[in-house]
Amino acid sequence: MHSEQIKSALIAGVFSTFVLGFLAWLNYMGDYGIWLMALFGAAAVLVFGVSQSPLAMPKNVIGGIC
């Protein structure tokens, strides 16, 4: 892998760790767990099941979760 790919993967990994940590904290602090599971399930279906759909574009997936 090139250094640019390694840098990009490292940034994505660190960002993902912080986001998942924040979501785990939300789950711990309240009754949000079931709602977060539904959101991630819907996003997974869009991204992996119908990846060619216009609804599965990154802006729609990220915007739908946030």
Which outline best applies? flat
Q: End-to-end distance, in Å?
A: 31 Å
The ordered H/E elements are HHH
Number of helices: 3
Number of strands: 0
Alpha-carbon Rg, integer: 14 Å
Mean pLDDT: 79
Strand percent estimate: under 5%
Largest sheet: none
Structural class: mainly alpha
Proportion of helical residues: over 70%
Low-pLDDT residue spans: none
Count of domains: 2
Please give a structural write-up.
By secondary structure, this protein is mainly α. It folds into two domains: 30 residues; 36 residues, no CATH class. Helix content is 79%, strand content 0%. It has three helices and no strands. The longest helix has 27 residues. It is flat and about 45 Å long. 0% of the residues are buried.
Quick structural summary:
This protein has 66 residues and is mainly α.
List the main descriptive attributes of the protein structure presented here.
single chain; 2 domains; mainly alpha; 66 residues; 79% helix
Write the SSE topology.
Elements: H1 3-29, H2 33-49, H3 58-65
